[in-house]
Amino acid sequence: MKPLCHLKDLEATGALGLTVDLGEGPVGIFVVRQGGTVRAYHNRCPHRGTPLEWQDHQFLDDEGALIVCATHGALFRIEDGLCVAGPCKRQSLTPVPVRVEGQAVLLP
Ligand code: FES
Predict the structure, then answer these.
(1) Residue 41: which domain range?
(2) What are the Rieske domain coordinates in residue numbering (predicted)?
């Protein structure tokens, strides 16, 4: 188990961008929280493969309800990464499995 962050790291913006090694060299991911749901995804839009955030750690829309791609505005559900609007509708972000233990978000 590798610690990724603490839940309090997600308080300010609801998400945290990180670079981790998942076994094939450094890759950009982000951890996102909505209530009791904590998920992580590769920071790569299925439309053009660009990073999603519009500023550091800013991955969510104004309401904090959906993940938004800064390039063309695709919207993704936090719970499963499914694109619900935009040019890659019905495609999904690539999940990264994470576990929450206490206040820590861990990479198994
Ligand atoms: S690159 Fe994300 S919507 Fe186009």
Answers:
(1) 2-107
(2) 2-107
